[in-house]
UniProtKB/TrEMBL annotation:
Residues 6-52 form the PhnA protein N-terminal proteobacterial domain. InterPro entries: PhnaA_N_proteobac (IPR013991), YjdM_C (IPR013988). The lineage of its organism: Bacteria, Pseudomonadati, Pseudomonadota, Gammaproteobacteria, Thiotrichales. SUPFAM superfamilies: Prokaryotic SH3-related domain (SSF82057). It comes from the Bacteria. This is PhnA domain protein.
């Protein structure tokens, strides 16, 4: 059974964050190296849009996290922590964060997704990357651990930003890889 089918079954065909059943899609919780049920959540189009574009977040939509944050699924706990952390200063998210208890390894995963750099991640031409962008390799790069070479001209899709402004994470031929931002250019 595929990861998407297992997610639908686990979530009872509803968004695991807000409970909606419209426009469902799997979301791989970064940082991720290999797509798996344990590292994914099923989200609706509204939640996905706000996760990928934090500037469009509607704080009242995320009041559902009051219930969601108590899930036994680690990926859902991570997303709840991250979203509440992004909403700090609204009042109610601060209170929920104080109540939320997650295991140390899960909290470490949740914090791994937080960017601690202030500057944007720039491509080889100085253009800033955003989550979900697509880029093209500008030179051949050997990928350690996979024993492959990413060739010039290959497409890197669905970019996410890492905890440093010098690298990006994206899908290269169906595999999630981390690359130096200066080895690609934004499409």
């Amino acid at each position: 059974m595929s990861v998407d089918a297992l997610l639908l079954k686990r979530a009872n065909a509803k968004c695991e964050l807000c409970g909606s059943d419209e426009g469902l899609a799997a979301y791989d919780v970064p940082p991720i190296t290999l797509k798996s049920l344990d590292k994914s959540v099923l989200v609706c189009s509204n939640c996905l849009g706000q996760i990928e574009n934090p500037e469009t977040m509607e704080p009242n939509h995320w009041r559902c996290l009051n219930d969601t944050m108590w899930s036994e699924t680690a990926a859902i706990q991570v997303m709840s922590w991250r979203l509440l952390n992004q909403l700090k200063g609204e009042g109610w998210p601060d209170e929920l964060l104080e109540m939320l208890y997650i295991e140390d390894d899960i909290k470490k995963w949740a914090m791994a997704g937080e960017r601690v750099v202030d500057g944007p991640t720039l491509d080889s031409n100085g253009v800033a990357f955003a989550v979900g962008d697509t880029a093209i390799m500008i030179k051949d790069v050997f990928i350690t651990g996979m024993n492959i070479t990413a060739k010039r001209g290959m497409t890197v899709k669905n970019i996410s930003l890492t905890d440093t402004d010098r690298s990006i994470e994206g899908n290269l031929n169906g595999t999630r890889v981390v690359l130096g931002a200066k080895t690609v250019k934004k499409v």
